[in-house]
Amino acid sequence: MENVFFKDIETVSKMLRNQEITPVELTKQLLERIKSVDSVLNAYITLMSEEALTQAAVLEKELKEGNIRGPLHGVPIAIKDIFETKGSVTTSGSKIFEKFVSHHDAEIVTLLKKAGAIIIGKTNLHEFAMGATTENPHYGPSRNPWNIMKIPGGSSGGSAVAVAAGMAFGAVGTDTGGSIRLPAALCGVVGLKPTYDLISTAGCTPLSKSLDHIGPMTRTVADSRTLLRVCADAEKLKQVDLSTRLGDLKGIKVAVCKEYFFEGMDEEIAMHIHQALAKLESLGAEIIEVDIVGISEAIEAQKMIFKAEAYAFHESMFLDKPHLYGEDVQFRLQAGKGVLASEYIQAKQYQQAFQQHIRFKMIEEHIDVFFSPTNVIPPFDIGSVGPEQSVNNIFRLGKTPLGNLLGLPILTIPCGFTSERLPIGFQIMGRAYEEGKVLAIGEVYEQSENWVAYLEKNEVFQVEKTI
User: How confident is the model at residue 234 (pLDDT cuts 50, 70, 90)?
Assistant: First the structure.
């Protein structure tokens, strides 16, 4: 049972099927782990102890009867506290929703439960998912397990922390400008933003409806594939071939655009990113450099869409009770208040044109994936950036937002650590509904480096020395 909390879903699933541990035993042990470690890290807003143990008992009975729902049967999974859960509070990280109890489960929660996952708790997030640090003024900041003075990234920071620190075997987050990928990179785990609309957002508090994505955060690429298979819309999943596997990367063309994506990188991070790119080449990939027309205009369009759609959802609540919002979120909503309808329409038109441009480029140049860093600087200290500057954090920390404008599948993978033992990640972006290929490429790289074994050594975490 040593280090069971840092095992991947595949391993834990085998342990459960082989009766090396029962769902109830596993859930009880994980709850104890959370109660100990989370007093420092603050990854969870709500720990669903009673509900989780009830689920575990049902699943244990089914397991004994030989009724196995699938690879998630009896495996504790965390969900971001932005997904509705029947009969329990969904705060969305806000004071406004602190007493909101839904009568329904979000679609993704329904699918997870149907697959036999145990919902262990609801994780902390940047208020209304509207930020990149998970410094929540109402529920406290989540802390990076590699250095508890540092941010874990956001907005799905609690989900990333829970997986990285052995408080969940997988988690689900949302990504509107990088909110899965950035915290995954800063906490040293795998994060997948699928193709737009592959996973239903029904029952998820919206941030920006045309940019919102839901996806898994896991220890391994294989685990992301497992969660995606469960969480995706059944009809849309028919367009995705998740059976794709690769022995090496021969015949795979990886494109690199230096403009924007490789700018502003910390020196140490740049070294690891270039090493990762060289590793992909050594594994057989063909690396090509390309230019992308209209990047700066695309970024401005993404900002405009985000501001307008976020304000549209919050308008009545914000006008009625602005004081209940955190200062940084107030700045964001005030910016959205001034967006003209003509500006929003123009931004949407540019989004469509930019999507078409990238789609054609990938086809014409036979590009399988684009490669770029996920985070370009290490995580900064909690509380070091004021509310009025925080709107730019997502653009300072990483190169994730354009992926949401494009709506294409993007996987972030750990690729090293700074000299201060802070994780670094790179991302690969594929064509629409080609998650199978993206995951297969990521898996070849992952297996060549074996970061998972490194992450199992939980004594490297600063948090372990503080409890």
Answer: very high
Indicate the DSSP class of residue 238: T
Give me the number of domains the chain comprises.
Answer: 1
pTM, rounded to two decimals: 0.96
Classify the C-alpha dihedral 188-126-131-218 as positive or negative.
positive
In a domain, 450, yes or no: yes
Question: What is the extent of the structural domain holding 147?
Answer: 4-295+345-465
With beta carbons less than 8 A apart as the criterion, state whether 435 and 242 touch.
Answer: yes
Reported confidence tier of residue 451, pLDDT bands at 50, 70, 90: low
SS3 416: strand
Residue 1, pLDDT above cutoff 60? no
Cβ-contact 176, 394 below 8 angstroms = no
Per-residue pLDDT tens digits for 311-358 = 999 999 999 999 999 999 999 999 999 999 999 999 999 999 999 999
Choice among 13, 92, 142, 179 that is catalytic: 179
What is the Cα gyration radius of the chain? 21
Q: Which of 7, 13, 80, 142 is catalytic?
A: 80
Query: How far, in Å, CA of 261 to CA of 254, rounded?
Result: 14
Q: What CATH number did the domain enclosing 140 receive?
A: 3.90.1300.10
**Does residue 255 lie within any of the structural domains?**
yes
The mean per-residue pLDDT over the stretch 381-387 comes to 94
Residue 348 designated active-site: no
Q: Is 49 noted as a catalytic residue in this protein?
A: no
Residue 336, in any domain of the structure: no
208 flagged as catalytic: no
Q: Which of the following is catalytic: 155, 156, 159, 372?
A: 155
CA distance 394 to 390: 8
Q: Would residue 185 count as lying in a domain? A: yes
CA distances from 210 to 206, 383, 459 (A): 10, 31, 41
